[in-house]
């Protein structure tokens, strides 16, 4: 008997996973290869009442996020994305939000080890001008 655990995955619709989400993942890989010091946190926005699948009742998020910190050469910058769980042809920068917005939605404090003055400033910004799209 095979046992397949789904405790460390977020189920995604194929059109989303192979579409706009894949474009975002490719862009993040590009940034990670281009720079030295990229940290990425990815997940689904979990809340009560979501559709569940499988014997383990794994929740299917209606939104997904990516939070990126780039500390290349000691110059820290951040970028965050929230996407509805549906495919889109919009350019990726249209999904950019502040890290504060993702933290408010998820209840997660992503970078608590940063100096508060730096953390507060970077997490409040939704500027993507210093990132190559």
Automatic annotation (TrEMBL):
Q: Where does Mg(2+) bind?
A: 17
Q: Which domain of life is it from?
A: Bacteria
- Location of the ENPP1-3/EXOG-like endonuclease/phosphodiesterase domain: 1-117
Q: Where are the transmembrane segments?
A: none
Does the keyword Hydrolase feature in the UniProt annotation? Answer: yes
Q: Has keyword Metal-binding?
A: yes
- Domain annotation DNA/RNA non-specific endonuclease/pyrophosphatase/phosphodiesterase: ranges: 1-117
Per UniProt, the keywords (alphabetical) are: Endonuclease, Hydrolase, Metal-binding, Nuclease
Question: Which InterPro entries has this protein been placed in?
Answer: DNA/RNA_non-sp_Endonuclease_sf, Endo_G_ENPP1-like_dom, ENPP1-3/EXOG-like_nuc-like, His-Me_finger_sf, Non-specific_endonuclease
Q: Name one GO molecular function term.
A: metal ion binding
Q: Where is the signal peptide?
A: none
Name of the protein this chain belongs to: DNA/RNA non-specific endonuclease
What organism does the record attribute this protein to? Winogradskyella psychrotolerans RS-3
User: Lineage of this protein's species?
Assistant: Bacteria, Pseudomonadati, Bacteroidota, Flavobacteriia, Flavobacteriales
């Amino acid at each position: 008997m095979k046992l397949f655990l789904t405790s460390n995955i977020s189920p995604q619709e194929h059109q989303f996973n192979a579409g706009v989400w894949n474009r975002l993942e490719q862009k993040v890989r590009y940034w990670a290869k281009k720079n030295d010091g990229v940290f990425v946190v990815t997940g689904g926005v979990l809340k009560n009442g979501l559709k569940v699948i499988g014997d383990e009742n794994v929740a299917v998020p209606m939104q997904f996020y990516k939070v990126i910190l780039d500390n290349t050469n000691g110059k820290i910058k951040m970028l965050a994305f929230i996407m509805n769980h549906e495919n889109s042809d919009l350019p990726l920068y249209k999904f950019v939000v502040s890290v504060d917005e993702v933290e408010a939605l998820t209840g997660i404090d992503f970078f608590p080890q940063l100096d508060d003055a730096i953390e507060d400033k970077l997490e409040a910004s939704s500027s993507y001008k210093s990132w190559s799209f």
